[in-house]
Amino acid sequence: MVVTDACFILEFIHDISAGSTLPLQDQYIPYDLVLLENQIPFFVLTGIYECVIYKFEKTQPLAEFIQPLLKYANLFKRKLKVCGSSLYANHDHILGLLNHCYQSKNDISSAFPSSTIHSAVELDRAGVNFMPNQDAKWPMAMEVKFIRSRLFWFLFKPTLTMPTLRINDFTELVFKNLIAYEQSYRANPYVTSYARAMNMLIDTDEDIAKLVRAKVIINHIGINEEAANMINWICKEVVPEHFYYTRQWEELDSHFKGYWPRKIVKLKRTYFHSPWSIIALFAGIVLFVLAMLQTIFTIMSS
Q1: How confident is the model over 29-46, as pLDDT tens digits?
Q2: What is the dihedral of CA 118, 121, 123, 124, to 10 degrees?
């Protein structure tokens, strides 16, 4: 039975590698192949691949051969790459190979932040920008960069760069299976840590809307509330052991607690919490200017 399943998987990958379009009834297969309960040991796939495909088409190792399948389960806009030692490493199975693509090549210190957790909307009110990372070496890297303000040269605005996450009907399935793999095997929980970081940033649909406008989330679901609920449920009942974004979170909290960011947040919450309050403010300013002009013309005419 295992051999039959392995042959089907290799034939399926060979078909999609040739550029054939998946029929509607087969579009769920790539996601079934990353389910933890459906995994076949990598050495079984390797043995059949070398006897059947590699023997006649000596073009690439198995890990590179599987790469067209991984693009369906890719969580991010950035293209997944299987290269270097990963091509010839002894992976556990296809899900393990997918998880390996999200592992950092360099060791990252892990600690739980002692700082206050702020949502994307709260950080935005404090002047924090969000931007997709373009040249990060680690696919799930987040960095805080301080960019000089164009209007006030002596002020620096923090920008959180992060990978562009694609949210669709299968995002939750891929996340949960990667997290289950990290909890079950001896793998660094980088995906679990990223999911926890996104859970910290996202509380409501407003946070999703903000990150969508910043182009760090592509919401194919269409409904921001459903996307927010999905992010909030990914790490439910997962025991946290590591967090790899402590430094970034502490930098954001340090900025948030600064004098001017706190005043800006209070001002926005008090006077700019709705479009009507903004309209009322501008109407008041216009009326004040008109009253001043009327007073000046009255004095000049008298």
Answers
A1: 999 999 999 999 999 998
A2: 180
* DSSP state at residue 76: B
Q: For position 154, what pLDDT does the model report?
A: 46
C-alpha–C-alpha distance, residues 83 and 270, integer Å = 52
> φ and ψ at 114, to 5 degrees?
-90, -5
Ramachandran sector of residue 84 (left: φ over 0; alpha: ψ -120 to 50; beta: rest): left
Cα 300 to Cα 38, 170, 286, 293: the distances in Å are 87, 71, 21, 11
Are 254 and 224 in contact, with CB atoms under 8 Å apart? no
Secondary structure in 3-state letters for 77-132:
CCCCCCCHHHHCCCCCCHHHHHHHHCCCCCCCCCCCCCCCCCCHHHHHHCCCEEEE
**From CA 117, how far away is CA 249, in angstroms rounded?**
8
- The structure tokens listed for 94 are 């296809």
The pTM of this model reads 0.82
- For residue 149, is it left (φ>0), alpha (ψ between -120 and 50) or beta? beta
The three-class DSSP label of residue 166 is: strand
Q: Are 94 and 33 in contact (CB under 8 A)?
A: yes
**Distance in angstroms (rounded) separating the CA atoms of residues 288 and 300:** 18
pLDDT above 60: residue 151: no
CB atoms < 10 A from the CB of 69, how many? 20
| 2 vs 272, higher pLDDT | 2
State the chain's mean pLDDT as an integer. 84
β-strand 129-132 against 156-162: which pairing, if any?
A: parallel
Instruction: Reduce the DSSP state of residue 215 to 3 states and report it.
Output: coil
Token pair in block for residue 26: 């087969």
The Cα 102–Cα 141 span in angstroms is: 10
